[in-house]
Specification:
Blueprint: H1 3-25, H2 32-39, H3 46-87, H4 91-126, H5 133-152, H6 157-181, H7 187-212
Length: 223
């Protein structure tokens, strides 16, 4: 092959090869090897994900407040009906209202308990500043969120579902933090911390219930 024709052939192959690469990889895109490397690089930053979880928790706190207010209004109405029925010596009707009120107060207590525990969780998350604190702080928090979610399932399924999603977000953050920094996780300590948070919330909720809801005539306080 003459030198001139050979040179033209090489230039044509190089040009076609470059065009093929562009079509294969896309115009103005990095090489394939770079894009594959980008796919397996480290997960997104933890702080924005944590902030998003805190924001969603605060939204649920607002919803729990609204739920508590709704229970309070319903409680006042039912309590007055119980008193009126007793005053009219209509024991059967009084017992019907009293039983309904008893069930309402169980849900109100569960909601109050959830709000108090979630308040503690929000405070803990907002105080997170170091990567090393993530696993230590989030593991008990995840346990508490799951407990609250379980308790709220029969009270407000929408709040329960949202808490499930929050739990998944926090679990993902712990997993990524562990893989990034090689943190060791003490599950026994986390479970103990979660139990303490729930017990403290239950104690405060019990006290608030006694202060908020009057005792039914002829009945024991709602436990």
């Amino acid at each position: 092959m003459p030198i001139r024709e050979y040179t033209y052939f090489i230039l044509k192959v190089n040009f076609m090869s470059g065009s093929f690469d562009k079509r294969w990889e896309g115009t103005n895109q990095p090489p394939l090897a770079t894009r594959v490397k980008n796919m397996v690089r480290q997960p997104p930053p933890l702080k924005p994900r944590l902030d998003a979880a805190i924001k969603r928790i605060n939204i649920q706190l607002t919803k729990l407040d609204q739920e508590s207010n709704r229970f309070n209004e319903r409680d006042k109405s039912l309590f007055n009906k119980v008193v009126e029925a007793y005053a009219a010596h209509d024991t059967q009707r009084a017992n019907i209202y009293a039983n309904e009120l008893s069930e309402l107060r169980k849900m109100a207590k569960m909601t109050m308990n959830a709000k108090l525990a979630l308040d503690q969780i929000a405070l803990r998350l907002e105080g997170l500043t170091e990567l090393g604190d993530i696993a230590h702080t989030l593991l008990p928090v995840i346990g508490v969120v799951r407990d609250i979610r379980s308790g709220m399932a029969s009270v407000n399924p929408m709040i329960s579902r949202e808490l499930g999603e929050i739990s998944n977000i926090l679990s993902g953050i712990v997993m990524d933090a562990g893989s990034t920094s090689g943190l060791s996780i003490n599950f026994e300590s986390a479970n103990e911390d979660a139990r303490k948070i729930m017990e403290e919330a239950a104690t405060v909720a019990e006290s608030k219930m006694k202060d908020t809801f009057p005792e039914l005539p002829g009945r024991q306080p709602i436990g």
